[in-house]
Amino acid sequence: MPQTSPSPVRPVPALRPAPSVARADAYLESLQILERLHRLLQDLVKDEFERLGRTDLTPVQALLIYNLGSYEVTAGELRSRGMYQGSNVSYNLKKLVDLGYLSHERCDMDRRSVRVKLTPAGQEVRDNVAGLFARHAQGLDLSGVLDDPAIEIVNLQWRRIERFWLEQIRYIY
What we know:
The structure is a single chain. Helices cover 60% and strands 7% of the residues. The chain is mainly alpha-helical and 173 residues long. It has a 3-stranded antiparallel beta sheet. The radius of gyration is 23 Å and the shape is globular.
């Protein structure tokens, strides 16, 4: 019997979901998960503040304080960061000033514009939210949830989707 040479080994292509319907369904599922995660984040913040006996803030206001951090910004700058869609930023800022979590002053350059920054009470709220997030990050890290796939890869994918969405919005206008 003649000997035949073994056929060359071909690399196995990386496993990917079938294009079209499966990918579209996965994308739609991802959007639903993202929406649920956003609501759960607000619930987590609400529960934390209830546990601390702080019922004067909504989760949106607490997250606004957290994201404001040590910056001094205008309402327009907060809106342009793409956060707080669906919430009335001006109303929430006024409420946070009235509650003593933010201070405000007119801009020197544009007297129509008001800049806001955290007061010590606002910094305390920010620290509460930061502590909550640090505890969650530690728990997720210990459980291995952040490892497969690595959270850095997941974030890279979300940033790509964010960039795609921004391009779509710019294309419309």
